[in-house]
Request: fold
Amino acid sequence: MERERLASLGQLIGGIAHNLKTPIMSISGAAEGLSDLVKEYDSSIDDPEVNSQDHHDIAYDMSEWIAKIKTHTEYMSDVITAVKGQAVTMANQEEISFTIGEVLKRVDILMKHELKNAIIYLNMALKTDENTVIHGDINSLIQVINNMISNSIQAYNGKTDQTIDLIVEKEENNLIISVRDYGPGLPNNVKNKLFKEMVTTKGKNGTGLGLYMSYSTIRAHFKGNITVESEPEKGTTFKIILPL
Reply:
């Protein structure tokens, strides 16, 4: 359990570094661009050949750089919000409401690094309104979805250029979140007791805690359910069923 916790922490830290590096570099570039424009504007103040249109052009270029900085800082804020949420302890969970759109945004941020390293593509298909409201703790649900995506990545056993489907749809009064891979599938002896005890297909590298805890979390915090469908050499689909 400690080994898996530290591995998850390592992935989270790697994801933070990956997600923040690009916008920080972009903001640094924008600051350089603004510095050049400030110098250009300062040198133009006493230049008789500079007309009012030139001033407007410089102001426009400055506004463009500022808009880019705002976009990158908003993205960094989203990253920090997502990571902070996943860092809370079980004791801090609250019964709140959130939208499925917010869930998918945070999943995309938190899983981007792991997916990129594995060269696996996540295909998100939202087949219902992104403003559909879910009642419960958003961080717990994200943790469950991310765990399933991680399991799907590992199901490919290092094989690259593969796809994982994340499908969200509404059926009657339930929201169905499906995570599907096209790997080797689960053995029947594992599939039949997957949510009943800590069972793993990872050998000494796994404790089986992830899916067992995921099932318990969905049952306890959302009054929902998790099902699994798996066929040899065709893949595995986990479905999170949440009552609305």
Summary: The chain has two domains: 2-87, 96-243. The two ends are 33 Å apart (CA to CA). The helical segments are 2-44, 52-87, 100-118, 138-155, 188-191, 209-222. The first strand starts at residue 96 and ends at 99.
